[in-house]
């Protein structure tokens, strides 16, 4: 399985800044396994690393408004600003959309 939990900056804050995903090693598919493959031990592989990585350069994130100021206390506004800078950097990059070849195979 792939775990997901919401990310809040403060327990009293009701604004969700995004999700934290976990990818347990025991459920990772080997290179020769398809997602959803049943194994001899009864387990099922549920996720696989993509063969490509998406990368943006630091200057791109800075140009898109990343806030480099430092503070001892976490500032939710700054965290949101920096999140938006990363999202804009990836959105602006000339990348082809990722797509699943067979979406039925990912529904485990």
Strands of the largest sheet, in order across it? 1-2
Report the total helices. Answer: 2
Helical/strand content category: alpha+beta
The arrangement of helices and strands along the chain is: EEHH
Separation of termini?
9 Å
Instruction: Classify the beta-strand content into a percent band.
Output: 5-15%
Overall strand count: 2
Overall average residue pLDDT: 82
Largest sheet entry: 2 strands, antiparallel
What is the global morphology?
flat
Q: Stretches where pLDDT falls below 50 for ≥5 residues?
A: none
Helix content: 10-25%
Work out the radius of gyration: 18 Å
Q: What's the short story on this structure?
A:
With 108 residues, this protein is α+β, with helices and mostly antiparallel strands.
Please describe what this structure looks like:
The protein is an alpha+beta fold. 21% of the residues lie in helices and 9% in strands. It is built from two helices and two strands; from the N terminus they run ββαα. The protein has helices spanning 58-63, 76-92; strands spanning 3-7, 18-22. The protein has a two-stranded antiparallel ribbon with strand order 1-2. The longest helix has 17 residues, at 76-92. The protein is flat and about 50 Å long. The mean pLDDT is 82.
């Amino acid at each position: 399985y792939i775990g997901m939990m919401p990310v809040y900056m403060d327990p009293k804050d009701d604004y969700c800044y995004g999700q934290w995903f976990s990818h347990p090693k025991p459920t990772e598919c080997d290179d020769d396994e398809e997602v959803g493959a049943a194994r001899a031990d009864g387990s099922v592989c549920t996720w696989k690393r993509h063969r490509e990585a998406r990368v943006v350069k630091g200057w791109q994130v800075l140009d898109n408004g990343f806030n480099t100021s430092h503070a001892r206390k976490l500032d939710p506004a700054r965290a949101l600003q920096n999140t938006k800078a990363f999202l804009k950097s990836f959105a602006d990059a000339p990348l082809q959309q990722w797509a699943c070849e067979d979406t039925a195979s990912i529904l485990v």
